[in-house]
Amino acid sequence: MKAEIPEELKYNYEFTGWTGQEDVNPEYTVTVGEEDIKLTMNVKELSEKITPVTVIQADNAMPGSDSWKKDNLVDGNRTSVNGSDGFTTNIYETETIDGQNIVLDLGSAKTFNQLSMFPRTSAKASGDNMSAHFPKSFTISVSTDGKTYKTVKKVVDLPNPRFKQQVFNFCEQTARYIKITTTKLGDVATDEGNPNYHRIQIAEVEVSDNTGVKATEADRTAIDREIQTALQTKETDTYKKASRKTKTVFDGTLAAAREIRDVLEATEEELAAAVQTLKRSH
Question: What is this structure's pTM?
Fold first, then answer.
């Protein structure tokens, strides 16, 4: 018998062994039809979950139901349970929307690089093992002051999660606020009674600092230093007296460097190229 952690969760869980039978041996042989054996697969969580987290904004929330209130997003229940199905919006009549925001407050600036979302489990969508109303396209943004946000992850046309934890990794951030902005809605629950009754429904949201994710990042010391230098340049008389064209080129190069800096999968070569381009612009 072989235990396997899904590729998308390899930084979150580690298999630690089996329990349920005395002296369980990895090479234990079970003869089908002659004996029964019941084993429990044990795993260890590797990510460090940040608590407490408060939901300070949830647009278009459905009122009047404790089972669907916004606070349920951070109540520790990864599945829908009695009294806490998760969070739900009111009905949207189209799959694509202008943008529904859920804003999390970590209480103070914290360091993190991962956000997990868990689908509602108290109903399903049409099809084989399909989750209902899970967001399909959205962005994850962070802020230190709750006013100016920076996008750290963009998700487009996410496949149906099929009741599984969805993990979204990004470069390490230090911030207090996290905003999830949904623009495209997922599969409709069969219990809605109308295939055009779209919603956003999520059982739980977790924020984590995951050392496994951090280990995959290329070194960003050089690009961080060059971005800081460029920001200081913008405050100098040289920049302020430069032509509009020069400023436009410089600002565009700085914006591109900041964007590639926050791409988790960026290679050392890509980061080094951004550093050199930024250096040449000032």
Answer: 0.85
